[in-house]
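Sat 14:20. Reprocessing the chain from the morning session after the first attempt stalled halfway. Input below, unchanged.
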Amino acid sequence: MQIKLFLDSVDATTALAQKLASRLQNGDTILLYGDVGAGKTHFARQIISTRLAVDGINEDIPSPTFTLVQTYETTQGEIWHADLYRLTSIDEIDELGLEDSIGDAICLIEWPEKIQENLAAHALQVHLETCDENTRNVVLEWQHQKWDDMLHDVIKTLENPIDA
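Finished this time. Tokens:
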């Protein structure tokens, strides 16, 4: 299935990530696609900070560009944020332990095309495309039915979502 949106501001992109974050469960994987600067890290940071805020944690969320993976402990479970842009070999995935976290933790993976064949079939794909500095075209794609009701509920709670 697929939902296409036009988000007319950074706040709208933030709201989408925050609404999604409040409905995620352990074992959910989100694959973040887009060019450099499309907003993948911003989107992931908003999910992470929303989940941490439930525990009263206000933490700086660094980009995992150089570490490849950052993990966060919450009372609701673990969050893994991976940025695979600098991944040079598929063998590095084993070293990161990322595959072990899929299915147990909430996993947010930037540049998933680097390991496409190894990803969970149950993942939500978020494609971000920059229109200008503040606006984005967003395509949400999924195959597993667990995302159906959740995503339609998320979209209904957004202010002024515009079908692209």
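The mean pLDDT is 88.
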